[in-house]
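RETRY 2/3 - previous attempt timed out on the joint model. Re-submitting the same 648-residue input unchanged.
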Amino acid sequence: MVTPPAHIILALAICIAAPYPASAQQAAAKRPKAPPGMVYVPAGPFLMGSEKGDPDERPLHTDSTRAYFIDRYEVSNRDFAAFDPSHRFPAGREDNAAIVTWSRAEAYARWAGKRLPTEREWEKAARGTDGRLFPWGDTFEESFVTWGPENSRGGSIAKPASPYGCFDMAGSVWEWTADWYKPYPGNETPMEQYGETYKVMRGGSHFNDWAMWRTSHRYYLLPEQISRYPVGFRCVKDAE
Amino acid sequence: MLSTLTARIGLMGAAIGLSCVPAAGQRVHVFPDTTQPLHARVAACERLILGNHWNEGTVIHHVIFPPAGLDRPVVGPQADCLDATSELLVAYAHKYAITKDPADRQLADSVFSGIQRLERVTGVPGLFARSLNRTDTALWHEKTLWYPEWHASRAMPGYRWLGDLSTDKFTSIVSSVSMYWELCADEPHRKAAAELLDRFVGRVVNDNFKLTDLDGKMTLWGNMCPDLPHQPLNSLLMLMGLKATHRLTGKPRYDSAYRHLIRQYRYDDHQILSKMLFPEEWRNVGDDYHAARALYLLLRYEEDPSLRNKYRMNLNRHWHDWKSMDLSWESSPWFIMAYHVLTGEDVKTPYRQHHMRSLQGFERRRRTFEIPGPSGTARVESEEEVVSAARIRNYWFGRYHGLIDPAW
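RETRY 2/3 succeeded.
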């Protein structure tokens, strides 16, 4: 007997467990209206992690979130300058992602009445419930990716959005999460960086390797020493 | 061997005379004079790099001198020593092939031992450090880098090493060790060179064509994996690694892996587009360097006409840019020489020869450093020095292939 891959079994289980809407219209009617610039992510389980990526992505497991809203785009220089007028950026880059330290990102989020996403919130917004490798699906195509600051905000050539309508979650800039870099439950791979020294950033960037654009990829950075990493952020807000 | 080398450097310093009071750690203070002939300027650069940039067999492109919180010149903000070390190994391999002077071979052997040391310090066979420092405690500039991957060495207590190896450093190791094996190493060293690549590239193969760190996580620029999206350049570099390691070791597994990536994953087609030509602002001379070193091995080691044709297509795409490129960057003249050697086309022009004859790439300057410490940040003024091993490599490579006149 051929055993289906683990991620298919988990995806089937999630489909069975998830409440099945009577119609798309009913589902849409139940969906809360998202604040401007945000999209709605419903409560429920999703597939998190990977068995095929780096050791820190293991295990592939079912996790869940409450309902929340998340920014459709990364916070821009224009957005950030409204919070902090001392924020400096090159002329003409008003709409590009703001590159800031973790504490400045967190301060912006509080000022905006929002917060930074947890890792699980970020990952669910990027890959939906089906465990996909990239926000648009399982296959890679260069034209789907935001290459640089000049074509962010949905400017990639095709299929850029995640299942919930978020843009630029692969490439563009790395994105801060609220979480310290720690192992997932059940992960016993030793990593000397685990603990409360590094914050997790997600989504890869135009600066780094393409493999880091996978939705389950994790990387760590000292929260106040971003050096040359292009790392920005997007915010979330509880839906209830 | 190293003590012999140290003695040689000391003698050099004594022979040339010190023109100013040396700070601790600086041995050589005589810079090339633009009125000197090229060979004399190269010799002066060699004395500088061996005297001031030597770090236990490795060499550092950019060093900071005391009193910037250090008691000897060590790795500076430009922490990688693998590029400069590999360039010096290629330089001395070609120099020995010309001179047959045992002293030149001994220098090459010493640099090779530095590359071996970069493996030994990690304590993991086949895992190489980007650089190493003899110190028990973290140095202030460790956190000025953008990859926080310094580790205390368990295999060599009293040392710290920098991880997160990238595919460009993969290229530095494979290409330089291969050229050392071809041109310079005696039998024991040829065996050691083959064993080194066997461990290094073997570990990459075992990790599904990824460079991984101590913890098994793929490094930031370590992806040559067929199961992950990666740049065409990385397909080229992986093919080079396998071809060279098969040549040095004779082990069939490397040829099998090479054929596998070609038949199953079309790496031979993927690599053709390593050179991004358009839009022009995306052209990257750094990537050209890695591609050029890979093509230099592949086009000399590969005999299959179809594969040679595909590598030549890649080279042609690079030449489209190189034929009119500015040659002021340290390795750009080497691109022209490598193309000349690989194709047999006479591409010498007055402009290109001017850059082959010129030798820049050395500088000493004063600079103020912001040094973090337990009681805050201190401002310290110190000297820093840059010497280009790539320029020394260019010279001896050009000499070996008859592209640089010994009388220049």
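The helical segments of chain A are 6-17, 24-30, 77-83, 102-111, 119-127. Closing ticket.
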